[in-house]
UniProtKB/TrEMBL annotation, chains A, B:
Domain Amidohydrolase-related: 67-374
Annotated organism of origin: Frankia alni (strain DSM 45986 / CECT 9034 / ACN14a)
Name by which UniProt lists this protein: Amidohydrolase-related domain-containing protein
UniProt entry keywords in alphabetical sequence: Lyase
GO cellular component term, pick one: cytoplasm
Superkingdom to which the source organism belongs: Bacteria
InterPro entries on file: ACMSD (IPR032465), Amidohydro-rel (IPR006680), Metal_Hydrolase (IPR032466)
MF annotations from Gene Ontology: carboxy-lyase activity; hydrolase activity
Sequence ranges of Polar residues compositional bias: 414-430
GO terms, biological process: secondary metabolic process
Biased composition (Basic and acidic residues): 401-411
Region annotated Disordered, chain positions: 401-430
């Protein structure tokens, strides 16, 4: 197989929501109070909701932007590639980047809708979540059903309402819901209670994968306030490592045997170690802790229930059998700063050296199709889904980085000191 | 090579300090105020110091104890194997376990002397640190110079005094000092300042390795207060992962080119991923962060300056070239609950399947001899250092697990709720 023959489904990209999001979807009675875009006092387009604001942080929309203009300033739509917020342009950028399909996580509500969890008016919040999901499923992903795989927001503050919303969106075709890697850190009951069972059971019963994105606990791992930004960014996979360890020792999968979850942007190269470690600790300690996993080792619980993905992860690919070759997927992370766009296929193909065609197909698209019950070939002939075919369709798209008129970074500009507030919102911008 | 031919140096074991520790070493004026053993109100022998107490937590002294009696209760000396606190018995247990030599980290002062950092009377604290080091170097390790490699406590509250103490103990032959994986979490300046330079420079100048043990930041990674104890224990390597990431992005190694540090009990299987991730993030972000590593990638900084070790880590051994074969060492972790004693050689040998004799020798003893300038063969003929030879010397040692009269664990005994306080002290007992 050559790089141009790859068929690529990215299971973790991001939509920067357009200002018109709620226009067609929020009930009339909430029209004036739905989240809406305002100009920030120091620049940037901000989402206003109740008495707060949610910025589109610069690092969250850097596709096509030169690295010198990366940063944590709030950003205006005019300083982004239209592919960030316009579905047609997104699909053109995907084609230019050789990518067939993608799942787009939310931006301004945070990775799993923490903004609405914090809302004072929960009727307004529920209406906003439903409107968001209708926009995402019907308008954003629905405009390109062969290219965009819908994912829904959860109702974080009520597991019964969350179950109801999962059933509602599943009936409309959504096979993924974004959720928290650690509800405890959001002030909610942990995965070691039965609190979430109604929601998680609804996901399992409706074939909806629970996707937990790094940062969806609104907390990041900070070593020191004066550490360079790279430290926090490099440590983001720790969020997934902690979530996996937490989940495999929970009773959730024993109670809900069909539940499937996915790590989003967590990487994979650390998993063989984490699984060996979990098994070792279980074997050394369960005699006094009485932890009962129903006869399975923690690693087996993982293999049975948790899907994974990576951007560029040579050691993870090398260890693919121990990571679980039938559940590894790929991600592009467009338009974030960790993204390999527009060179995703080439970066990935380097990682895939020596991998069999069968395993390549699993990693690049077959696992994702299976996880999310997604069949693009029913709409688009397979031969039009390859890197080469897609790029040929988008030969006119300009993929060269160019200045977006943002403030250039300067030495000692205080980027590091901004990281505390970023960590607090979970909008880390990787 | 066969298992009985291995020559094993463990770079991470633990001493449970005997009640007589300070008797011969604390100046007369502090005799009444030095840490001393008292009976706890609910059982257990506790160290009393100023107006506080430091227990010997049960999990920290379980060698030979059946797993049903593991737990977090304070423990009495009478409920431990004498090898925990008696140097002659320790060496006999090492021989019975096939282990030539070991480094013994402190217990009651916590992993890097946090107890003395918190002391109100800093003159008393300094006298106690010096007395501890004299006891450890002259009495404990000094009694068996071919078997026990001395490690010293630092003066955590003053980098100049810390430098002075490093020079003092180095003159007495100590080639290791235990320090914090993250001083920030102890309320001290971070590795991103020049605050520690006098201390670290003294270590580099005197060929003293700075050993950072998991838990030496007095903080553990807790997912949820109601998570089973296994979650926190399985996540302890995250402390080392965070420390490595913090350190490789710091300017310390650029300023102090000869500095050598070691991860203690951090494991190794996660390192190839962590290094790839650090390099990826550096390459994606340094244009706007202005982080300057002096021309090296983060991974190269790691390979040049940081030693590692593992207990039982199949994937780490498999990836030994990416971990850094010239700096990987082995550890037994006696008498903690993660220890493989008395079957360390057999457990390790399984991990070593397919590894060349040259690499086996590096991992088992040559790297440790080089790191700590330790030459046991100058005292003890090499042929008497093997697993087989040592075990033959200790054929009379009873290594069968037996009840130590501790409280047996019960389901719902509230072990999980104890973990918060364990995390707070850093006495995690892995």
């Amino acid at each position: 197989m050559q790089v141009e023959d790859l068929i690529l489904i990215s299971v973790d990209d991001h939509v920067v929501e357009p200002p018109t999001l709620f226009d067609a979807h929020i009930p009339a009675k909430y029209k004036d109070r739905a989240p809406h875009i305002v100009k920030g006092p120091n620049g940037g387009d901000l989402w206003a909701f109740e008495d707060g604001f949610a910025p589109n942080v610069g690092l969250n929309a850097v596709a096509g932007c030169p690295p010198e203009e990366y940063g944590l300033d709030p950003t205006e739509y005019a300083q982004m590639r239209p592919g960030c917020y316009d579905a047609d342009e997104r699909v053109r950028d995907m084609s230019a980047g050789g990518v067939l399909a993608g799942i787009n996580f939310p931006t301004f509500p945070h990775f799993c809708g923490q903004l609405f969890l914090r809302a004072k008016d929960k009727d307004l919040a529920l209406a906003s979540v439903r409107a968001y999901n209708d926009w995402h499923i019907d308008e954003w992903a629905g405009s390109h059903p062969d290219r965009l795989i819908p994912i829904s927001l959860p109702v974080l503050w009520d597991p019964e309402l969350a179950a109801e919303e999962v059933r509602r969106v599943a009936a409309k075709g959504a096979r993924a819901v974004t959720f928290s890697e650690n509800p405890t850190k959001l002030g909610l009951p942990s995965y070691h209670t039965e609190y979430w069972d109604p929601f998680l059971r609804a996901c399992a019963d409706n074939n909806v994968v629970v996707c937990i994105h790094i940062g969806s606990s609104s907390s990041m791992n900070i070593t020191a306030p004066d550490a360079p930004p790279e430290v926090m960014i490099a440590l983001t996979p720790v969020n997934s490592l902690m979530a996996v360890t937490d989940l495999v020792f929970s009773g959730i999968f024993k109670r809900i045997p069909n539940l499937q979850m996915a790590l989003s942007e967590g990487g994979i190269g650390w998993l063989p170690y984490a699984l060996e470690r979990a098994d070792y600790v279980y074997q050394h300690h369960h005699a006094w802790t009485f932890t009962d996993l129903g006869g399975r080792l923690p690693s087996q619980v993982f293999y049975d229930h948790i899907w994974t993905c990576f951007i560029d992860d040579p050691v993870g690919v090398k260890l693919r059998d121990q990571v679980g070759i039938d559940k590894i997927m790929w991600e592009l992370d467009y338009p974030h700063s960790d993204s390999t766009w527009p060179h995703g296929p080439e970066k990935l193909f380097k990682d895939l050296a020596g991998v069999s065609d069968a395993d390549i197909n699993k990693i690049t698209h077959e696992n994702a199709m299976r996880a999310f019950s997604f069949d693009p070939f029913a709409i688009r002939p397979r031969e039009k889904c390859t890197v080469a075919a897609l790029r040929a369709e988008a030969a006119d798209v300009d993929i060269e980085p160019k200045s977006m008129g943002r403030r250039k970074a300067e030495a000692d500009s205080g980027n590091a000191s901004l990281l505390g507030s970023v960590a607090a919102t979970g909008s880390s911008g990787q």
